[in-house]
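#structure-requests
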Amino acid sequence: MYAVIKTGGKQQKVKPGDIIEIEHLSAEGETVTFHPLLVVDDDGKTHYGKDAQGAVVTAKLLGEQKGDKVSIFKYKNKSGYARRAGHRQLLTLIEIAEVSLGTGAKRPAAGSRHRYPRCSRPTCTSR
């Protein structure tokens, strides 16, 4: 079973037991959960969109580290302009513990629906 999670503006395909580096998370505790998921594959059956809304990936935090150094060099010919800089991204190491499909999204009861679907009030009967 695998899933595609979105974290730090990037998408990653994960399965239980994977150890991955993601952009720095300031999470409290020992575990972190990712939801909603983009795609979940359950033994050959692919779930996406509304089918994957209840799915959850649980991961264990392993630690933090810095990534490789990126060198930046700006230069303009014949003008004496040269600038040097560098950057090291903070990363978090996580181990994927579990990918669970869940029961899916729960539908609201028939009596709790709005008469006008675009209204945001819970008991709206008028426009």
